[in-house]
Design brief:
The chain is an alpha+beta fold. α3 packs across α4 and α5 crosses α7. The protein is globular, with a radius of gyration of 19 Å.
Length: 287
């Protein structure tokens, strides 16, 4: 087998892998077409000119995404991942998951266990979006406050989070540096800023929720946080209602929320708001 950086010759094969869902294949194709992902960040494992594995390096968020395989062994996948890891910046805490390809879960999981040091258990929840009347709540997009206030809001949420992956990133990168990187990820485009909603009571900020477009019709909750002094007042449920409405208004038919398996409060809020559990998954980190 041969490991290559993708080029136009293999673009169609890479974005039509049978083991990937149609939505994931289309999302990858769309991201390449609009320039969000470049072919030089796409790695392929070839056998007789057929794509047997793919992985996409997303340097800005230290993520190895769209990992998908076709009829290869754990050892072959492990070799593929190890070769990719040689090309990565060792100062970044890279992570990967078993999201794109659920057909070969045992093989991918075994290979990731060998290639990554830390494994965090997570759960994924989904809901079909619909309009909810949130007019009784005051919420604005993130441009209503300064970047300094936004950074403070993210840092405050990070310090009280129950999300193990965020806690791990803060330990490795530091509170300020991670919050700044995370904020850039959440507000990196006009659409992202418009779907970053802040919940207010009079002139006080209660919390926020960020909706992100994952593909043409699928959205994800990038982050949700309630300020520490306002926690335990059901504001998370209100923020989830706002997220569902914002997703619907932006023509996102499905909204996904991935959470830490140990985060019982947000799980309860998701279920109470109408989300249903889709799957359990594992996220792997370099350190």
């Amino acid at each position: 087998m041969n490991i290559i950086v993708c080029n136009n010759t293999y673009l169609t094969k890479m974005t039509s892998m049978p083991s990937s869902s149609l939505a994931q294949n289309q999302a990858l194709a769309d991201s390449i077409a609009c320039g969000e992902i470049v072919l030089t960040d796409c790695y392929l494992l070839l056998e007789h000119d057929e794509v047997k594995a793919r992985a996409v390096i997303m340097k800005d968020i230290s993520y190895i995404g769209y990992l998908t395989i076709e009829a290869i062994t754990t050892k072959e996948l492990q070799t593929f991942l190890q070769e990719i890891q040689k090309e990565l910046n060792p100062k970044q805490n890279w992570f990967c998951d078993v999201y794109s390809d659920k057909k070969h879960f045992p093989i991918i999981q075994q290979a990731l266990h060998q290639c990554f040091a830390i494994c965090i258990e997570r759960e994924s929840y989904t809901i079909s979006t619909y309009p909810i009347d949130t007019s009784k709540y005051k919420h604005t997009d993130c441009t209503a406050i300064s970047d300094t206030q936004l950074l403070s809001l993210i840092k405050d949420a990070n310090e009280s989070t129950l999300d193990t992956s965020i806690q791990n990133s803060i330990r490795q990168e530091g509170s300020h540096a991670y919050a700044k990187q995370f904020l850039n990820e959440l507000t990196g485009s006009k659409e992202k800023r418009s779907m970053f909603r802040i919940l207010w009571h009079q002139e006080q900020i209660l919390g926020f929720v960020c909706v992100q477009r994952l593909s043409k019709e699928i959205g994800g909750i990038g982050y949700i946080g309630v300020r520490r002094q306002f926690q335990s007042h059901q504001y998370s449920s209100i923020l989830l209602q706002i997220a569902i409405t914002i997703a619907y208004q932006n023509k996102l038919d499905i909204l996904i929320a991935d959470i830490d398996k140990k985060n019982a409060p947000i799980r309860n809020n998701l279920l109470a708001t109408g989300f249903t559990k889709d799957c359990e998954q594992y996220v792997y980190y370099t350190y």
